[in-house]
Specification:
alpha+beta; 60s Ribosomal Protein L30, Chain: A; 6 helices
């Protein structure tokens, strides 16, 4: 019977968290879409995780305490991500960099045509001010890990494309480190021609696939 009562309390906590997630929404000022903020997501996820751990450790009372602590921690992280997202959007208007919010992380999608010369891995000089703006925000919001991923289209040798995508990601990472971002926050990888976001059958699609993506995730 005790186990059943504890489970009921845990399920009640889960239900409350679900209601928070469904009820707390905002309107994105850039797209006009209604969305759940990172702060709300963080609060709900933190509460669920804390409640589950607390229930295992201390039954119903543990679920309540764990859920409260988890909600506060998750809410703080989510609020910071919301602020970082908004500031990046403001700074990167008109730069050719797309700012996308996907769940609990932020992505900066940089077309290679405005970032690199053809078949080159050195960042174009004219793009340095944009990356400097990104670095300034990343220094301010220092509780995120930075994953930099390079991509190419399917033209040419696969091994060469893989190497080029890696070198481009490393080039962006090196510049961010030169701007004061600690190396232990930065991870780079190359995906070559894998994971296209458009058809490689057209010039427009290939241009979209040639990109470098900076993903910001809670540390």
């Amino acid at each position: 019977m005790k186990l059943i009562r504890n489970n009921k309390k845990l399920f009640a906590a889960v239900g409350i968290c679900a209601a928070l997630l469904s009820g707390c929404t905002t309107v994105n000022p850039y797209t006009g879409q209604v969305q759940t903020s990172d702060a709300t997501i963080g609060t709900g996820v933190g509460a669920l995780g804390g409640a589950a751990i607390g229930a295992l450790a201390g039954g119903g009372r543990g679920a309540l305490i764990g859920g409260t602590i988890g909600a506060v921690t998750g809410g703080l992280i989510g609020n910071s991500m919301d602020q970082e997202n908004n500031e990046l959007r403001q700074r990167l208007v008109g730069t050719g960099v797309q700012v996308q919010q996907n769940g609990n992380y932020i992505q900066l999608v940089m077309a290679s045509d405005v970032t690199f010369k053809t078949n080159q891995s050195d960042v174009i000089d004219s793009f340095y001010p944009t990356l400097s703006s990104v670095a300034e925000v990343l220094r301010k919001y220092n509780r995120t890990n930075i994953v930099i991923t390079g991509f190419t289209d399917n033209t040419g040798d696969a091994a060469y494309n893989q190497s080029l995508s890696e070198r481009r990601a490393e080039s962006v990472g090196s510049f961010l480190m030169s701007q004061g971002i600690p190396p232990n926050r930065i991870f780079t990888e190359g995906r070559g021609k894998r994971d296209p976001i458009a058809s490689n059958a057209t010039a427009e699609g290939r241009a979209m696939n040639r990109r470098v993506v900076i993903s910001l995730r809670p540390a």
